[in-house]
Amino acid sequence: MLNKLKSEIIEYGRLAGLKNYTPGYSGNLSARYQDKILITSSGSANGYLNEDEIVLIDFEGNLIEGEKKPSSEKLLHIEFYKQRPDINYIIHVHSPYLSSFACAHIPLDEPVMAENVFYFGQIPLADYAMPSSAELVRNTAKYFKEYDAVLMANHGFITGASTIKDAFMKLELAESYAKVVINTKILGGAKVLNNSETEKINLLKRG
Ligand SMILES: [Zn+2]
Questions:
Q1: Which pLDDT belongs to residue 181?
Q2: Using an 8 Å Cβ cutoff, are 123 and 151 in contact?
Q3: Domains within the chain, CATH numbers bracketed
Q4: Distance from Cα 100 to the centre of ligand 1, integer Å
Q5: Is 73 a catalytic residue?
Q6: pLDDT in tens, 69-111
């Protein structure tokens, strides 16, 4: 099972690299494994991971298995898993379009595209705090109960799902959404959906 989870992380890390969602050494991926977490190591490049760059930690952040140091954002991943028993995989990236919104302090909260209203409702923006800090965990984690995807001010984006494919699809949809929103600004501004239209989409979601 551990090996299967590691190969999933390597496979989707590589895809994230190919799509330029995880430039250089930025970002980190993790998977829930029983009462522990498999997470990429500090300083690893998600697009080019080796098996020894994925380590096992417990829910206190202690290294259980592996030679390398776990990602410095391990506490953020731990908190997401703690709050959301339905989530088994987490992807944190500094993808360029989502990070543009994060750096401009603009949440993706307008109902511009029907599909994204359906998938995300909105993507809120967490206040800035130093990467790896307890404050960053506090600022970001307060959105995890209600949202699967959060922008992190002056930093990047985090999402989670029950499967790694779903987590990756959320990243792909969110990054593409961010790109569309930027393009609509170039084209003079999006015509946002009205309340009755978004309500119809929300009903579809509940049904
Ligand atoms: Zn980061």
A1: 96
A2: yes
A3: 2-206 (3.40.225.10)
A4: 14
A5: yes
A6: 999 999 999 999 999 999 999 999 999 999 999 999 999 999 9
pTM for the model stands at: 0.96
Which residue in the list 8, 53, 73, 79 is annotated as catalytic?
73
CA neighbor of 91 nearest in space, from 182, 153, 14: 14
Amino acid at 129: A
DSSP 3-state of 43: coil
* Cβ 26 vs Cβ 93: under 8 Å: yes
From the CA of 27, how far away is ligand 1's center (Å)? 5
Distance CA 131, CA 83 (A): 20
pLDDT for residue 1: 87
Q: Residues lining ligand 1 (ion), CB within 5 A?
A: 156
For ligand 1, the distance from its centroid to the CA atom of residue 194, given in whole angstroms, is 34
- Section 10-25 average pLDDT: 97
How far away, in angstroms, is 38 Cα from ligand 1 center? 17
Element (H, E) at 23: none
pLDDT digits (tens, 9 = 90+) for 134-164: 999 999 999 999 999 999 999 999 999 999 9
User: What pLDDT, on a 0 to 100 scale, did the predictor assign at position 207?
Assistant: 67
State in Å: Cα 113 to ligand 1 middle: 27
